[in-house]
Fold these 3 entries.
Entry 1:
Amino acid sequence: MDMIPGDAANDASSPKTSPDRLEELADNYPELHARIVVNPACPEGLRQWILSLGSSEVRRAWEQHQGAQQPPGGAMTPAAGPVPPRPGVPPRSGVPSQPGVPPQPMAQPKRSGGPRAILVVVLVLVALFMLYQCAYGVLTTLSDTSHSGNAADTQDPSAGDLVSPAPDDAVEAFWIQSPSQNISCELHDDIVGCSVAERYYAEAGQEDCSQSLFSIGVADGWASLSCGNDFIGSADGVLITLDYGSSAANDTFACTSRESGMTCWNQVTGSGFTVSRTEYTVF
């Protein structure tokens, strides 16, 4: 016989021992079965299983315990007979389930939403995709519009969108004068202007400048008087004489010299002016 720990023997007899502890002792120490079956704390299912093992010592201990519990002259309660094992069920290695307690069904996993849940997920994904497509389209349109506007603002006038382009034989020049040297002009990137020395505008009823030179210019709007500004070329007075019938131009402005006067204009807008000794006009 194996040595039984003292606490195991005490627990087998103590009515304060828990059913789980008694089941553990019954599995590990068959020598304590006689103590366990008479322990008031022993579950009935465990007691029946121990008695079904057929130990004469255990049965004798149980019968003596039953006899001690009967009042004098009372009939002894017969000991429970062996509990035959169920067919196809292996002998118990642990503690049998308690009589009268139905077996608990296995917990079934919760069902997911099934096809309906999948459909909802698909619809949500489709809605998000459509929302993304709409947002992307709006942003793309705004971006294209912005780029188009910037391109229009910074477009090179030489790209072909000129309302009144210079003649093909126009020379590139910045400071020019008429063959009579009475009219001088300057072609800048943002304005073209001319100054006239001898003129008779007051006699013709036109507004004149009070300065010694009459000046007029055109930028990106209509031509207008520019009194006080002298368009007489470089500091050293070097001017290119533009023969009658010849033209000069830069990327934005152009001038053509004729016997009737000097005509200058904005190639992009078409606005300009013509000056001569006797009169000036704007267009």
Entry 2:
Amino acid sequence: MSLIPEVKCRRCGERFSSLRSRCPNCGTRRVTQSSRTPSATPGTVSGTASYERAGANTRWQMIFGLILVVAVILAVIVMVSTSLNGTDVSIKPNKPVTAPSPTPNDAPVVEAVPTPTPTPPPTVEVLQIRYNDDEREEFTMSPGEVVPINAYVSPLTITDKVKWTSDDPDEEYFIITVDPDDGNKITVECLKYSAKGINFYAEIFGKKVACTIHFRQA
């Protein structure tokens, strides 16, 4: 047995003489352990303020522990008595919350105005060009002569007036004058002679008739 104590390296575990300050194996410095005895804390020394506070804390801990034990015992007694009495403690399910239904919009509803159906034009059954209430398809005129002409339209419920046109739009040979009070009446005034006849027309609702004017020399 060696007279010089050995120490153990804290890093590699190699044992070496306590006279060395470093481990010969890894070179780690040896740590000398303190030989001082730790002093007593103030709380363990009788007569100090810390000692008295420690005693008071211990008493309060004991009181709190007793209260906790009593509470646990009471809870166990209540549970046992409840089970013996057959009391059914049931948890009622929560009533479902119904979301409020959305209120309809109180704004007035504007209805679209229906498009009126167009009225079909009436059907013209008869359309005639007349002179002295006689239907004419032609007649003869002299320069300077004025002839009254009217259009006959059937059915009589048709109140629209006829449209008058001619093959003499420049009014070189005759002039057509429409009665301002009755558009179905006109006067034809001959201006000058033409070797050939010229037509004029009455038209209403797609129906059209013609009448030819022949000219004689004055």
Entry 3:
Amino acid sequence: MEPSHAQALTGAPQLIFGLPIQNERLAKLTRKVLIVALVSAVLVLIPGFIGLASGGGAQAPSLVSGMALALLVPICGYLGAKKSDQNLTCCFCGCNLLGSCLTIFSFVTAFAASGALSYIVQSCDPSNDDGTGCPTADQWLTMCPDLAEGYTAEDCYADLQGKAGNMQSTLHWMVLLQVPSVLVQCLGFCWGHQLYSELKQ
């Protein structure tokens, strides 16, 4: 007589981070979710500590509170997997889905803004402007509110040139830091959903 599916998945208890788990599939999913939760926590802490080291004391409260809030998601995943809690696992799964979607949206928005700014810098020099898709004279005078009152279109153009260079550098760092985070969030969603479905059975 062949063993049932449930019996096939059940064998000697496996120790997952010190937790004895009888079901083989549940053990594998628990290990995956625990690992991705820990990696998520590390990815939250690294930029936070970098910000604390470089931002000075003025930004410390906001950085610490931001880190604490961001750590709630990995904590949900860790505790949900460790305690086999459906609610915490569902929260971890859903938050990772939302987080990955928002991060991807921020990528698209940032690259679109960078493209628009690059076009203005490359094609819209006020001293030699053909007017095609470029700001009008009145628009130039409202595009750089951080400049001192009374600035000219040329002043605004020079300011945007500097911002375009800074934005390119920011995008490079954004990709470097956020792409791993998105990958981890996607894994967190997939494995979290699988673990949640397994716990519901």
